[in-house]
Amino acid sequence: RAKTISGAVAFARDLLNAPALDLYPAEMARRAQRHLRSRGVTVQVMNRAAIETAGLGGVIGVGQGSEREPRFLKMEYVPAGRPTRTIALVGKGVTFDTGGISIKPSEGMETMKTDMGGAAAVIAALGACAALGVKARVLGFTPLVENMPSGSAIRPGDVLRMRNKATVEVINTDAEGRLILADALCLAAEAKPDAIVDLATLTGACVVALGEKIAGVMTNDERWSGDVLAAAERAGEPMWPLPLPSEYRKMLDSEIADMKNIGTRWGGTLTAGLFLKEFVPDSIPWAHIDIAGPSRANADEGELSRGGTGFAVRTLLELLLR
User: Please, are residues 24 and 108 in contact by the beta-carbon 8 Å criterion?
Assistant: First the structure.
């Protein structure tokens, strides 16, 4: 068990530490296929044409500024015997994030190769399910894009149509993770799982609130969130519950679309969570984990080495096993 779980974490770390020049959307999809097919997980890779056909406007919009086309991974693990439950895992996969037209400062941008920490955790966890004897059916959904500035990139003020037909006005192209996660959450919900967990290096505001070692958890179902937090505690990965105040939803109101992709500078983690909540039916328990802080370590400490940490792989596996 220890070897399997630590191997899964190490696999996620290797993805996170790879230079973005070498690990772009198509290559990350190939590595996921190679890793998972020998571990009892079926993998479907959607190319740009398939993504467009599926109406994943957020994925297409964020990815259109890069010469490297987006990919979308659908993964499925089915245990032997009758599955106890069906759990959907959704992971943000931005293989490099410049911020797009709303470009980031140059200082520290090299760490944006780890903006696919959520997708890496989902892929790694799925790869360990068979060896650990997970009895749940597990689905994985990971959009993979590069967020680049170019003549073809989306601009502030553009409007995207998402998988569920909702329209989103892009106020800041650096709030791109929620755009691709929205489409992925729609697909996950359409599969009618018993519950959904999404993971994303989503907001700097979460790092401001909780520091670099603690992830934030938001939910539409306190019981499911309690299961996630209990699994995190057993796995030794610090997470803390955060609210989704309904009165903050108006911060996302748009003059020309169903919503904006970003609110004010205050409560950015919460409005990001409220944005994602719009794409999950209330009937499906859902937890959103913002791993922006602990997905990367700036120094060796304990079981962590400097670089990508593979954060949340252990929590996901603990959750699935129970």
Answer: no
Q: Which residues are catalytic?
A: 104, 178
For the chain, report the end-to-end CA distance as a whole number of angstroms: 14
Task: Give per-residue pLDDT as tens, 148-178.
Answer: 999 999 999 999 999 999 999 999 999 999 9
Half-sphere exposure of 18 (CA within 13 A, CB side): 19
Closest CA to 26 of 56, 61, 67, 54: 67
Nearest residue to 35 via CA among 119, 96, 134: 119
* pLDDT tens digits, one per residue of 238-286: 999 999 999 999 999 999 999 999 999 899 999 999 999 999 999 999 9
Structure tokens at 168: 């989103």
Nearest CA to 57 out of 191, 183, 188 is that of: 183
Spell out the long-range contacts of 230-236 with Cβ–Cβ below 8 A and sequence spacing 24 or more: 231/315, 231/316, 231/318, 231/319, 231/322, 232/315, 232/318, 234/318, 235/314, 235/315, 235/317, 235/318, 236/314
Q: Against a cut of 0.70, is the pTM above it? A: yes
Asked whether the beta carbons of 130 and 80 are under 8 A apart, the reply is no
